Amino acid sequence: MSARILVVDDVIPNVKILEAKLSVEYYDVITAYNGADALKIALEQQPDLILLDVMMPQMDGFEVCQRLKADNKTAHIPVVMVTALSEAADRIQGLESGADDFLTKPVDDMALFARVKSLLRLKMMMDEFRLREETSSEMGVISMSDRKEEAIQRARILVIDDNEYSVRMMKEIYAETYDITLEPNMEEAQVLLRGGDYDLAVISLDSSNYDPLRLCSKIRSLEETRQLPILTLVDESDKDKLIKGMEIGVNDYVMRPIDANELIVRTRTQILRKQYQDRLRHNFHRSMELAVTDSLTGLYNRRYMSNHLDAILQRAKLDYKPVCVMILDIDFFKRVNDTHGHHVGDEVIKEFSLRIGASVRGIDLACRYGGEEFVVVMPDTNLSVASTVSERLRRQISEVPFSVSKGTLELNLTCSIGVTVSGESESSDSLLKRADKALYKAKRDGRNRVVVAPSNVEVFERPHGIAAR
C-alpha cells in the first residue's frame, strides 16, 4: 500500500532516520522541520499520514495537531505523535489534541509500520465515503451534516476478557458512560457481536482460554462486524501478538498495566470515529436513495424507472412473459394550482401517489414520471389484468374526494390512464410511447377514462419444446 507521509521534527537526524525507514517500504515521504511549515504542507499537499514530533520550538506538536484537526481540510488526516515523552499524561494530552496514536522514541519498527498500515487502511475507506458525501452535496442530493462531535453517552461496548481483575476495572471505568457487556467466552462473544450492534469491541490479547487473534480475524471477516472498531489490551510480553493483530485489523491498543485515563481517551476516540464513519455511510446510502426517488412522493423517479424498465423487459424476454405499463395523469391539475396554490397541489400529488401505491402489487414499479404524470410497470401481467387494475384505480380516484389543507378542503378529481403491453423485442422507449399515446387518447376523448393500446403480439407464445418456468 503506497501513500504520502509527512514527517515533522525539528531534529534533522530524526527526520532522516524516519524518512529512510519509510522510503524502504516504498512510501512517498515529505518533510517539515517546524509546526508552521507542517501546517502549510499538510494543507497544500494533503498527505495520507503525519508523523509529528511533540517537542518543537515555537509551536509544539500538541498545538500543531489541534490546528490540523480544527481545519476541515486537514481534519481527516491521521496524526501519529512521535516523541521521547513516555508518561501516560503526555499520551493522553496527545490523544486529546486529536492524535490518532502516540509512539515513544526510539520507535520500534514493527510497531511503527503496523500502525502506519492500520491508519492508512482506515483513511482510504473514510476518504472514499467523504468523497461520495461531498459529491452528493455538490449535486444537491444531500446537505452536508455538521462535523461536530456526536453524543456518545450510551454507546455500546463488548468486553471480551477472562481476567477478573481487568474486567472489574473496566466495568468501573465504563459503567457511568457506556452500556457495557462483559463476556469471557469467545464463542458466546461471537454470537453477541453478530446481533448486538456494538460501537466497540475491547479484546484482551493475553487470554489462556481462547485465541484472541482468531477472534479479531473473525470480526474482520464477517459482514455484520467488519466495520466494528477493535481495541486490544496488551501485555509488554505480547508485542508479537500486537503486531499481528494490527495487521489483521485491530484499530488501537492499551498496554498493561491499564491507565484508566488513557483507556477512556482511546475508547472515546474509537467510538467517535465509528460514529463519523457511520454517518458518512448513512449519508452515502441516503444519497443513493434520494438519487433514484422523487422527493415529494417517495416513489421512484423517471431516471430509475427508465433503467429498471430495460432490465424488466430483458428478463421478460427470457421468461416469455408480458410486461404491462400504465401512464396516469391527473385531469385539470393546473386548475388546482391556479385556484388553491402549489402547496395544495403538492398535497394532491402526495395523496395521488399513496393511492397508486395502495392499488398495485409489491412486484409492480410505481414512479413519478414528471409533474402530475405517473407510471406503473407491471411485470408478468397480461393486458386484461392491467386493464382491470387501471379501471379500479380510476374509480378510486374519481369516487373518493381528496382531503387537503388539514381536512378543511375537499377536492373532487379524476385521472386519465393509458395502458399497453409489451410485445416481442420491445424496447422501453416504444412501450412508453405507446402507453403515452393511449393516455393522450383518453385525454382527447373526454378524460376520466382508461384507454388500452394492445401490442402487435398481446400475449407471448412460448416456442415449442421450451417448458414453462
Automatic annotation (TrEMBL):
Keyword NAD attributed: no
Pfam families: GGDEF, Response_reg
UniProt enzyme class: transferase
GO molecular function: diguanylate cyclase activity
Keywords: Phosphoprotein
Residue ranges annotated for the GGDEF domain, each copy included: 321-455
InterPro entries hit by this protein: CheY-like_superfamily, Diguanylate_Cyclase, GGDEF_dom, Nucleotide_cyclase, Rev_trsase/Diguanyl_cyclase, Sig_transdc_resp-reg_receiver
Record's catalysed reaction(s): 2 GTP = 3',3'-c-di-GMP + 2 diphosphate
Keyword Phosphoprotein annotated: yes
A GO cellular-component term linked to this record: plasma membrane
Residues of the Response regulatory domain: 4-120, 156-271
EC number: 2.7.7.65
Biological process according to GO: cell adhesion involved in single-species biofilm formation; negative regulation of bacterial-type flagellum-dependent cell motility; phosphorelay signal transduction system
Annotated signal sequence range: none
Domain of life: Bacteria
Residue list for modification 4-aspartylphosphate: 53
NCBIfam families assigned to the protein according to its UniProt record, in alphabetical order: GGDEF, PRK09581.1
PANTHER family given in the database record: DIGUANYLATE CYCLASE DGCM-RELATED, REGULATORY COMPONENTS OF SENSORY TRANSDUCTION SYSTEM
Protein's recorded name: diguanylate cyclase
Organism: Sneathiella litorea
